[in-house]
Design goal:
mainly alpha; binds 2-acetamido-2-deoxy-beta-D-glucopyranose
Length: 214
């Protein structure tokens, strides 16, 4: 299946203005704006959850867990990012983004079900979920300009639902904690990669040889 999404926010399919083409550089500006805000919101959710619920015993008794997106190959250092071509980097970002759609829905529900009413945290997490979708639309638009398609179903599955819905409070809270932590990590990764990609495009357009893109 191809990744075909409505591009309402990115103006590509706007029937009334068929001749107006948003420049690729502008598209990058828009997705970076999204990814930057998304990362900040995800960091807020993690911080809030960490302050309210973190238990040291999780790490002595349960050990660290891998994020469900860990199997997606991504460059780690700035030098590695620099060596990764634009298309591969975009595909990895889309892969991560798609892999978050399902767990984000469940995270929002789990936060909403916490006793004590954490309305603000729920609102922010829900905002992250919505922005993740908007980001996907933008990335799809950018890739489609090169006639590049992405398999919409090829992303790592998330298998944390049982733990997230566990009646054991500690298991339940630890699953939420790990999701928030991974979400912060992955949204940061996406934001970093997109900023490099935007820089590449700006670099090419402006021929600014002094500009460093990570
Ligand atoms: C996403 O990453 C997984 C590795 O977990 C890989 O199997 C899959 O092919 C990737 N999908 C795309 C569209 O690159
Ligand atoms: C990025 O790669 C280019 C060659 O592709 C190289 O000239 C440049 O020095 C590299 N920059 C960094 C920060 O590694
Ligand atoms: C699209 O193709 C151009 C020219 O080959 C290349 O420079 C650019 O990186 C490609 N962009 C994407 C998103 O693959």
């Amino acid at each position: 299946m191809l990744l075909l999404l409505p591009n309402l926010l990115f103006g590509e399919n706007v029937v009334s203005k068929p001749t107006v083409m948003v420049s690729t550089e502008d598209l990058y500006n828009r997705v970076v704006e999204q990814s930057h805000i998304t990362y900040n919101l995800a960091a807020d959710v993690f911080h809030e959850f960490d302050v309210k619920f973190f238990k040291r015993s999780w790490f002595t008794h349960r050990g660290p867990r891998l994020c469900h997106t860990a199997s997606i190959p991504t460059p780690g250092s700035l030098a590695e990012i620099n060596e990764t071509n634009t298309e591969d980097l975009l595909k990895a970002i889309i892969n991560i983004s798609l892999a978050w759609e399902e767990p984000l829905k469940h995270l929002v529900s789990a936060l909403a079900a916490l006793p004590g009413g954490f309305d603000e945290m729920v609102k922010i997490a829900s905002n992250v979920k919505d922005r993740n979708r908007v980001l996907l639309e933008g990335l799809e638009t950018i890739l489609s300009r090169n006639q590049t398609e992405v398999e919409e179903n090829a992303y790592p599955a998330w298998s944390g639902l049982d733990d997230l819905q566990s009646s054991d409070e500690d298991t339940h809270l630890f699953a939420m904690y790990m999701l928030c932590r991974c979400l912060k990590r992955d949204t940061h990764k996406i934001d970093t990669y997109l900023k490099v990609l935007r820089c590449r495009v700006a670099h090419k357009n402006a021929k600014m040889s002094a500009l460093k893109c990570g």
